[in-house]
Amino acid sequence: MNFKIEKKLANTLGRVGILSTPHGDILTPAFVTVGTKATVKSLTPEAVSGAGAQVVLANTYHLFLQPGDEVVAKAGGLGKFMNWSGPTMTDSGGFQVFSLGAAYGKDISKVVKITDPSLMIPERFDDSDAPRLAKIGNDGVSFKSHLDGSIHYITPEKSIQIQHNLGADIIFAFDECTSPAEEIKYQEEALSRTHAWAKRSLEEHIKLEEAKNFLPPLRQGEDRGGVLNQHPLPTSPLAKGEEKFPQALFGIVQGGREEDLRKKSAQIISEMEVDGKKFDGFGIGGSFAKEDMATAVKWCNEILPEEKPRHLLGIGEPEDLFMGIENGVDLFDCVIPTRLGRNGTIYTKTGKISITNTKFREDFTPIEADCECYTCKNYTKAYIAHLFHGKEMLAGTLASTHNLHFIVSLVANIRQSILDDKFEEFKDEFLNMYKA
Ligand SMILES: [Zn+2]
User: Fold this and answer.
1) Can you list the residues of the chain whose pLDDT is less than 50?
2) What letter would DSSP give residue 360?
3) How far is the CA of 371 from the centre of ligand 1 (A)?
4) Which of 91, 127, 175, 320 is flagged as catalytic?
5) Which terminus, N or C, of the chain has the lesser number of Cβ atoms within 10 Å?
6) CA nearest 80: which of 226, 225, 233?
7) How far apart are CA 384 and CA 360, in angstroms?
8) Is 27 left (phi over 0), alpha (psi -120 to 50) or beta?
9) Is 420 a catalytic residue?
């Protein structure tokens, strides 16, 4: 992986860059499309790339349970398995620790309630079918599968092993994402755990890569299982230009709403080093109160090394994209465009609309006349409304296609505006028209 900054946004932390992965370049800032279970819900890979998406992010926890990371490895890795030829990423599964941990507590019997509705929880994965039981310990997290009730234990090492099997271009360290409603003492404990887990993730990553690099060549007919066959073997010493680490590992910064914890975390994660190897990039994790998201992101990005990419995990509403980009974020992911699409909520330049509203029943115009997406070029609001009323499968597909295109293009347009020295104008124009 290589990251090159093309241009900086004056007087801010913002930048435009190119992130090169073994499966192609990502022009940053970029919106990463979420395909939790190795599929972007209701969309074919052709529709996903047709909407302009450059990179897909799948979830480690879900693929570990079903179909199993070894199955994905045997298929030739995540991209090949799902027929997506572009760059891929996997989350560490740490977010599930949060969604389960916050809901079910450190102790199974303790339920922590989030009482303040202004505390925003990132929209990262579709966890409607999340398990009913999880317990966080210093070594890892045990949980009960929502599929068959089986008990599993995920440690940082296990998360990295699974992510090596899944074989995405960019993978993440295992972390604990705390609720902002947690008391400070718990935030501190969780942060120490996240840092210890980051170190163990990095150690495991290096160990697995070293093992791959020093294996003798495969004899004809020999099979070591999918995981070892995804990357060229063996290569020691490495040929010129060859990547010793085909998978890039990002460390995750946590620390909730606390300035000192965020800064401490950014410092520790950016300096963390094992055998001369540091993290290739960074995730900024956690849930934020909407009003202090910008400051939390800024605290992190002022400390994180400028030359490495940063991914703001689980954030992707239009106004947040501007905020993130100005504050030095290169990558975003969010389930929002497709989740809203499936529910009939559609993005437009003036704000979201509910397509099932009676006023669209006989509206034979596209969602947006100047939109270049497949849906707007071919279908009317009346037809899409009809599909939703009739509970037709195509409804979610058409709405998700437009929404994904809307968000992906917005980020691409912000990128272009920085290149053209028109960021402020573009931002004002967009946000004046867009009513959230
Ligand atoms: Zn459209």
Assistant:
1) 101-132, 226-229, 232-236, 241
2) G
3) 5
4) 91
5) C
6) 226
7) 9
8) beta
9) no
In a domain, residue 16? The reply is no
Compute, in angstroms, the gap from residue 14 CA to the centroid of ligand 1: 28
Range of the domain at 47: 30-334
Q: How far is the CA of 375 from the centre of ligand 1 (A)?
A: 5
310, 357: one domain: no
- Output the pTM of the full model: 0.88
Residue 407: count of CB within 10 angstroms of its CB: 26
> Helices 184-213 and 156-166, interaxial angle, to 10°?
50
185 and 216 housed in the same domain: yes
Distance, CA of 220 to CA of 222 (rounded, Å): 5
* Cβ proximity of 297 and 329 under 8 Å: yes
Q: Which residues contact 71 (CB under 8 A, 6 or more apart)?
A: none
pLDDT in tens, 137-194: 788 888 777 778 788 888 999 999 999 999 999 999 999 877 777 788 888 998 999 9
Distance from C-alpha of 84 to C-alpha of 45, rounded to nearest angstrom: 6
Return the ∠ at Cα 152 (arms to 146 and 153), rounded to 5°. Answer: 135
CA-to-CA dists, residue 98 to 16, 65, 174, 274, 287, angstroms: 31, 18, 11, 27, 9
Q: What is the pLDDT of residue 256?
A: 85
Cβ–Cβ < 8 Å for 308, 331 = no
Quote the pLDDT of residue 151. 80
Residue 15 is assigned to a structural domain of this protein: no
Say if residue 167 is in the same domain as residue 302.
Answer: yes
- Examine residue 401 and state whether it is found in any structural domain, yes or no: yes
What does DSSP say about strands 281-284 and 248-253: parallel, antiparallel, or unpaired? parallel
333 an active-site residue?
yes
